[in-house]
Write a structure and sequence with these properties.
Blueprint: H1 16-24, E1 28-30, H2 32-41, H3 45-53, E2 60-65, E3 73-81, E4 84-92, E5 98-105
Parallel strand pairs: 1-5
Antiparallel strand pairs: 2-3, 3-4, 4-5
């Protein structure tokens, strides 16, 4: 799915199961932004990891190009969990890591 020729914003650029597999194998990292959002919401990383591992393909919202790095896409999921409504943005980097870019509560319809 992470084919550089793919430009769809309505389909994921990464396989959700692969993103989850990386996380289960501890091949992931949170960006500074995601860590700040977690601190602001008083949510710990382990709790968000549990939420991410429970995401369904049907919760995919959109794919978007990175604002900082042209040609790099980020998949966004809108998730409803015991924590409430969350907006989770992730990508897979070339070294086969899942990068958790943003995790914040709520979203506008």
């Amino acid at each position: 799915m992470s084919d550089s020729k793919k430009t769809s914003y309505t389909e994921p650029h990464y396989h959700l199961n692969k993103l989850k597999e990386n996380i289960r194998n501890e091949r992931y990292r949170f960006t500074l932004r995601a860590k700040e959002e977690l601190a602001d919401s008083e949510t710990d990383e382990d709790t968000v990891i549990e939420v991410i591992l429970s995401i369904y393909d049907s919760e995919f919202y959109k794919s978007m190009e990175s604002k900082e790095r042209q040609g790099i896409y980020q998949d966004v999921y809108k998730v409803t969990s015991e924590l409430g409504r969350m907006y989770i943005k992730m990508q897979e980097n070339p070294k086969d890591f899942t990068v958790i870019i943003s995790t914040h509560y709520g979203w506008e319809e």
